[in-house]
């Protein structure tokens, strides 16, 4: 795979083995800058594992990852976040006893490098608190700002999940089933917020809801059994007989 | 901060001073309570804020105690520099140990803290030629505080000294826990995975708080050595680590004040009941813990908060 | 050289005893993910059962051993059913506090009924003294210990690999959720395993009176050793605690013999080093 000026993130022959099982097998994927790129595939295809590899949560057993020209394969997760690669989790991974405002403010403070400060109170960091409130407002969470995360209904928690990712101002955002558990009407809104992010933010999202995929994706990659089956525009994928056989055939029942 | 609670805080911190004047016979116990409160606060940093369960925190307490004690026993009895030396030695040791602690998963981490505590105890036991071993370290003679106030049998200087150090430490620690650093620690406690996902160097933060907690524990230990003019092996023992954990949890973790409340209640109860019958004390303490786990997880302050919310 | 063999032998005997008691803890922690600091209390209960049976009921020592197993297993079963079971999903801190509380209660109870001094122990004659083997003198009792533990381990190993219950245990340790999905009554597996593990601890406690001593502070004194064996060996396995117990048994005895000034220091330092090198234990799985 050649790296072009427009490639934000790419992998070369990326593999992850768990013993005998190859969860991800020789995947060479390229994300264009500003892409709205969907990753689809049946359950167990290795999609979440791929995101774990891209974010540094798991170490690959083979292959390389590049952020622009920089080889990021050895970097731990928090360093990749600093370089703009952020993810959300399929299952809400939040701070149960922190308030929503505290959670988002914390992410902002980390981004700005203020989180190691121990002499000033959080409450005196007005700029960061303002930014947090503004972010919550775009996701219609401002009413929940002072509630403990654990007290929120599931759908709102899902939005906090996304808010935390957005607070890091990612240049590459990897979303693991962002709409999971949110009612259909709201999930369109949520993905709308994400699609409305600045055009130079690269977005890769895993989704099972084909309606959302075809609505928001400009490019689709299909992963099956850890291997990259095919890649193309939504139109191409919708008409690809291989994909239909493996995946869409099952999904159209959903 | 709610307007009423500032008043409550001020009253709270005036109470020890009131005790100083009204209960002169209890100054020794009072000093102990103040000192152990500080010790409990240091554990709260680890447990209540960073979520690290430690069964060996007494290692730092004891190290601080022996440092200050040995300094005084060998001729340098100036109290404040003794505190600094104790804080430094405990913090350095804490820094080293922290790398072992942050690496492990829950269980291995617990065992490491336990192991470190036991190791320190054994080391102090074996090095009896330095520490006095089972007999303890005596000959800890303190110079006058600021050259003016002697550490005498009345315990008055000791009490006010301990009080001042506790208050100063509390104000500092409160700053720390309300800061972005404090918030990030709570984030680590709540969800370590997510902290990494928002770009936080989790291990670095844990090393920092563990070192701070060790240093403060060392200060508390030094206070004990200086005010009682004696250091025993029990300052390092598992019983001390376990009792501390109980006191903190009893009062309520993650609030700093819980450390003080829990210590106060525990030590007063222990002073009274253990004197009557130590076996009964141990039994009822054990039962209290069992019941606590099932019914009263938030500790005293947690229960108070819940009641307050319900009115 | 003869000395070294003697030290090795004593170390193996000590290690076998540690293993027997710790096996139950390994299963409990592996199955239920429960940090049980009170495990030593079960060993103590077994020990005191033997003492009571010998002194009050005049039962010969060897016959008290199965009694210790049964009594302790019963206590374990009751405690599991009414208390432990409710805390399987509780956090680490809760489990630590709960088991410390149980430990305190057990120590206080033991002190109340038996006082705090060492319990007297009278071995039957045929277990006393030493025997001669290949030019060395070895303690008869320690040899008996080793033999007993080997037999028990073989029996347990067989149980684990050749019975249905054994495979249910192994499945539940591996993945409790999946095991439930397969229709295994995981709760029952837990209860039986816990009772079995407690019984073994009690048996170990009885067998250990001669070697480890028995007083009311036994649980606290030896708690760290049992935990150590399990955590270093690898939670939820049998091989792990065997290796760890033998290693630590020999290290401890050798340490105390050759460098007595350093004593228990060696074991704690070894534990920390081993945990650093093998965070999941020597034979543990990375979860």
Question: Can you tell me about this structure?
Answer:
The complex is a heterotrimer of chains A (254), B (311) and C (287). Chain A has 254 residues and is an alpha/beta fold. Chain A is 36% helix and 24% strand. The radius of gyration of chain A is 18 Å and the shape is globular. Chain A starts with 6 loop residues before the first strand and ends with a helix. The model of chain A has no long low-confidence stretch (mean pLDDT 87). Chain B has one domain (18-237). In chain B, helix 1 (3-22) runs antiparallel to helix 7, helix 2 (27-49) packs across helix 12 (257-276) and helix 11 (238-251) crosses helix 12 (257-276). Chain B has 14 helices and no strands. With 311 residues, chain B is mostly helical. Chain C has a single domain, classed as ABC transporter involved in vitamin B12 uptake, BtuC, CATH 1.10.3470. In chain C, strands 1-2 form a two-stranded antiparallel ribbon. Chain C is built from 12 helices and 2 strands. The chains are: A alpha/beta (254), B mainly alpha (311), C mainly alpha (287). The B-C interface holds B 47, 53, 55, 100, 103-108, 110-112, 114-116, 118-119, 122-123, 125-126, 238, 242, 245-246, 249, 279-280, 282-283, 285-290, 292-294, 297 and C 29, 35, 83, 86-87, 90, 92-94, 96-98, 100-109, 111-112, 220, 224, 227-228, 231, 235, 261-265, 268-269, 271-272, 275-276, 279-280, 287.
List the helices and strands and how they pair.
The complex is a heterotrimer of chains A (254), B (311) and C (287).
Chain A (H helix, E strand, L loop, with lengths): L6 E12 L2 E7 L2 E3 L3 E5 L6 H9 L6 E6 L2 E2 L5 H6 L2 E3 L12 H13 L13 H13 L15 H14 L4 E5 L7 H12 L6 E5 L3 H7 L2 E6 L2 E6 L1 H6 L1 H11 L3
Helix pairs in contact in A: 3-4, 3-5
Chain B lengths: L2 H20 L4 H23 L8 H16 L5 H25 L2 H21 L1 H4 L24 H23 L1 H11 L1 H6 L4 H27 L9 H14 L5 H20 L1 H18 L3 H12 L1
Chain C lengths: L1 H31 L6 H18 L4 H22 L9 H23 L15 E4 L2 E4 H23 L1 H11 L1 H6 L4 H22 L1 H4 L5 H16 L5 H20 L6 H13 L10
